[in-house]
């Protein structure tokens, strides 16, 4: 039986997917906007900023991808991801390029995906 992926990895992946949805919504909005604006643009640009911030805060000092990539995994570790899961996750988020982009951790990666500069949310 295959190990279940930890909850945080599923949430991290879902945020990565939702960042694409967010960008698509912004593009669709920009295509549909006329000279009248409804003020909702900021809210749409901040789509999922609060859940991302809560995820980052709840992770505390534990960084899922950094820990995953740096630790060795044995078959006895049934609660954690396998070495293959870790490798695939790191490839999926292009972790090898993080230093070049100024990304230090998974939280920074999510902030970049969601274009979250840390501004106050409405």
Verbal overview:
The protein is an all-alpha fold. The chain has one domain (7-113). 55% of the residues lie in helices and 0% in strands. It is built from six helices and no strands. The model has no long low-confidence stretch (mean pLDDT 78).
What is the chain-wise order of helices and strands?
A: HHHHHH
Strand content: under 5%
CA radius of gyration: 17 Å
Q: Count up the domains.
A: 1
Number of helices: 6
Helical/strand content category: mainly alpha
Q: Quick one: how many beta strands?
A: 0
Outline the biggest β-sheet: none
> Judging from the principal axes of the Cα atoms, what is the shape?
elongated
Summarize the structure.
With 122 residues, the protein is an all-alpha fold. It contains 6 helices and no strands. It has one domain.
């Amino acid at each position: 039986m295959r190990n279940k992926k930890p909850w945080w990895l599923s949430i991290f992946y879902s945020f990565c997917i939702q960042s694409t949805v967010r960008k698509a919504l912004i593009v669709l909005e920009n295509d549909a906007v006329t000279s009248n604006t409804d003020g909702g643009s900021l809210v749409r640009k901040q789509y999922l900023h609060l859940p991302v911030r809560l995820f980052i805060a709840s992770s505390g000092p534990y960084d899922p991808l950094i820990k995953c990539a740096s630790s060795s995994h044995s078959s006895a570790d049934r609660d954690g991801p396998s070495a293959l899961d870790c490798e695939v996750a790191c490839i999926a988020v292009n972790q090898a390029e993080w230093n070049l982009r100024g990304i230090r951790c998974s939280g920074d990666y999510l902030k970049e995906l969601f274009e979250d500069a840390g501004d106050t949310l409405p």
